[in-house]
Design goal:
Length: 612
């Protein structure tokens, strides 16, 4: 293998470094903002029912006892609802438990019952007074935000009807004029219905001036806060079937006026909170921000939308509170599955339409995910084995030609690199050797390498799954803990990342033996493992496990190929090629023609003293 081939390797290395830096750089920006302190709310659990668990046990959190209320305030629009006592209602089914507050009639806390946080605690998506949900409008010239008013459960608020249950909260303007929030929940599932109904308020609330504000501070659920933030942001889909997202690495905001939003999602790494309105919001203002100092809140997300004119006064919404599992989201309407980030361009295509199908097929076996990753790697290596063979054969040709290359170097000298390159290329052409033959198959495999770099971090199924010493394949295994923070590595060293790096060092060593490279060029390949251990130390152990397996299988492939390839036969074939007359009718490629012309131009510029 000559200098050209290793130049190609070095360019591939630069691409890998640039890609990794591009994915992670934004997440390291210091964008600290002051937030309110997180408050802890006491929640009373309900008694169990067979199908649907509903609780109407109210717990007072705040009171207005002893407060003198201005009579003018009571006479203002919805004035009676400005004074009251916050009460909490627990509504739950098989999969979700939500706490609805009479203050604002909003969902104050949401728990996913079938999942736990990384440290085994109940998985709470959001909780506390810093989360808001309410209508904003003007009534009698006064600004109203329903989030600040006390709703009352109407008579018969808790209704069980087979598999469906509903609970209604009412904000009264007068006995015949009111706003109802009607929540509905089925026996199982992650969907919560919310129907907002305005009754008798046609002359009070303007038909075209109704806005909805939704804000949530999402709580940490995963082991690595930095990685969880990297995959958390606001996603949204318009009625033109376009799904977009705000930045994941910095504070971001967007205002959308010309396209209706069909759904807006406050997406975390592995879970989502989605508000769906199938008719589409008229306009939207979306925002995501992060408090880098917080150790409990991942990100703060805000959506302010305008509701379209509605003569019926009924606005049917739907929430999705659940996992970012491909199978679960695919069953949801309105393309919620597009929130799963499998990468961009060809990476997304490879993951979505190739790797995922193989993964689902292997997953159906019910085996441990460590075994499934092993089989996935084996299947991929078998598919790519022709490229591996071609790469090895090309390197073998370069190796057997090394003595002749050395003769050219001794004859021409290394003080005239242009002439040396010309003579070397003539030899390659005569022998029928492509100097890029060993590099090109590796370049063709790069999209797959990068695709897996996005596939494993986005794979919900790996969350909480263990294999060997790895307790969670979706995050790093910190078997080696430093007890302090070390530059570039952090506070730990992933054992699987370390094994993967060692295997890459060994692979580089044997690759140098196969190619026959000497001098300083043989050390270039050792840069890659150093970069790997820095970049991939915080990536999922499942990803490092895959790369480790890929290296080990490559060793096996090269050993088998080496038994099949005879260097003496290759050398004899190359000598036969050199004896064949040049086929002048064969059309040159544009690249080869430009390279020859470039070298001729360079040779003309060499001083006569160096040409001798």
């Amino acid at each position: 293998m000559d200098r050209n081939t290793y130049t190609g390797f070095f360019l591939i290395l630069l691409i890998l470094v640039g890609f990794s830096f591009w994915m992670n750089n934004g997440n390291k920006e210091e964008l600290a903002k002051q937030r309110k302190q997180h408050l802890t709310d006491s929640v009373r659990r309900a008694d169990s029912l067979k199908q649907i668990k509903l609780s109407a046990k109210f717990a007072a959190d705040t009171t207005k006892k002893g407060v003198v209320v201005d009579s003018a305030l009571l006479k203002a629009p919805f004035g009676v609802a400005t004074v009251g006592t916050e009460q909490l209602v627990t509504v739950e089914n098989k999969d979700v438990r939500m706490i609805v507050s009479t203050l604002g009639g909003r969902i104050k806390s949401l728990e996913l019952k079938n999942f736990k946080t990384f440290d085994g605690k109940p998985l709470i998506q959001f909780n506390g007074p810093q989360n808001h949900f309410g209508l904003k409008f003007a009534a009698a010239g006064k600004p109203i935000n329903t989030n600040n008013y006390y709703f009352k459960p109407s008579a018969g608020a808790l209704v069980a009807n087979g598999a469906d249950s509903t609970i209604t909260f009412r904000l009264s303007y007068s006995p015949t004029q009111y706003i109802d929030y009607i929540y509905s929940l089925k026996a199982s599932g992650y969907n919560v219905g919310l129907s907002i109904k305005l009754t008798g308020l046609e002359q009070v609330v303007p038909n075209t001036g109704l806005n909805l504000s939704w804000q949530a501070s999402l709580l940490k659920t995963e082991k690595d806060m930095s990685q969880e933030r990297l995959y958390s942001t606001v996603y949204f889909k318009n009625t033109l079937e376009e799904v977009n997202e705000l930045s994941t690495g910095k504070d971001d905001t967007i205002e959308v006026k010309d396209k209706s939003m069909q759904w807006i999602s406050f997406k975390q790494h592995f879970f989502s909170n989605v508000l769906i309105y199938k008719d589409g919001f008229k306009s939207s203002n979306l925002k995501v921000s992060v408090d880098e100092k917080s150790t409990t809140e991942v990100k703060q997300m805000l959506a302010s939308v305008q509701l379209p004119a509605n003569t019926t006064g009924v606005y049917p919404f739907e929430f999705y509170f659940g996992p970012n599992s491909f199978d679960v989201l695919k069953a949801q309407p309105y393309q919620l599955v597009k929130q799963i980030d499998f990468g961009w361009g060809p990476l997304k295509f490879i993951n979505r339409y190739a790797v995922l199908y193989v993964w689902d097929f292997l997953k159906s076996s019910g085996w441990n995910y460590g075994i499934i990753i092993l089989l996935l790697t084996l299947a991929l290596k078998l598919v790519l084995s022709p490229l591996t063979y071609k790469s090895y054969l090309s390197m073998a040709k370069m190796r057997v030609m090394k003595p002749e290359i050395d003769e050219i170097k001794a004859k021409v000298g290394e003080d005239n690199p242009t002439l040396l390159q010309q003579e070397t290329m003539k030899l390659y052409k005569k022998a029928g050797v492509n100097p890029l033959g060993g590099c090109l198959p590796m370049v063709l495999q790069l999209p797959i390498v990068f695709a897996f770099l996005r596939f494993f971090p986005a794979l919900f199924e790996l969350r909480g799954e263990s294999f060997l010493w790895m307790k969670d394949l979706s995050t790093y295994d910190d078997v080696i803990k430093f007890g302090t923070t070390i530059p570039f590595l952090g506070d730990h060293l992933s054992l699987m990342c370390l094994l993967m790096t060692i295997s890459t060092f060994i692979y580089t060593y044997f690759n140098n033996q196969i190619s026959g490279v000497t001098g300083q060029m043989k050390y270039i390949g050792y840069i890659t493992p150093v970069i790997f251990i820095v970049v991939l130390n915080k990536y999922p152990s499942g990803l490092n496990y895959y790369y480790f397996l890929a290296n080990m299988m490559t060793f096996a492939q090269q050993y088998i190929i080496r038994l099949m390839v005879d260097d003496s036969k290759i050398h004899a074939q190359l000598q036969e090629n050199k004896k064949k007359p040049e086929d002048k009718t064969k059309k040159k490629s544009g690249f080869a023609d430009r390279m020859e012309q470039y070298m001729r131009d360079q040779q003309k510029q060499v001083p006569a003293s160096k040409k001798k």
